Amino acid sequence: MATWDLSQTRHHVLICNGGSCMRKGGEEVTVAIREAITNAGLDDYVHTTRTRCNGRCEDACVMIVYPEGIWYENVTPEDAQLLVEEHFQNGRPVESLMTHRFETNGFVRTIETKPGILKSHKAKK
Asked: Which key words are in the record (predicted)?
């Protein structure tokens, strides 16, 4: 098992590998993102982590980038190169895939994003 030196890491990418995201290609997205990061020579600067469900199943496959707090939806393997070039190399989030951005008072969703439900309003079983 590896213990990575994260001292040069600039971005932490969380790639959903929960049930809905896996059905929408989560494994393939994970592989494609990691390959694009490696091909761009960014392995020391961009760290990836597979996660379980992130709670936005309708947006599958979900990818989240920190420290910016950018949430991406409907990510496909074909989006990997664009995401790496634009977000990690050029510092510009890919607006067409973005659903949320973290700001001072919390997450702000993009105009077209479904609002979802608050956890406190979820029906009790």
From this structure: Iron, Iron-sulfur, Metal-binding
With left for phi above 0 and alpha for psi between -120 and 50, is residue 25 left, alpha or beta? Answer: left
Domain 11-121 fold is Glutaredoxin (3.40.30)
CA–CA gap between residue 42 and residue 36 (Å, rounded): 9
CB neighbours (10 Å) of residue 106?
A: 8
Give yes or no for a contact between 53 and 90, defined as CB atoms under 8 angstroms apart. Answer: no
Return the percentage of the chain with pLDDT > 90, whole number: 83
Q: Residue for token digits 């960014």?
A: 42
Q: What is the pTM of this model?
A: 0.89
Q: Which two tokens stand for residue 123?
A: 């029906």
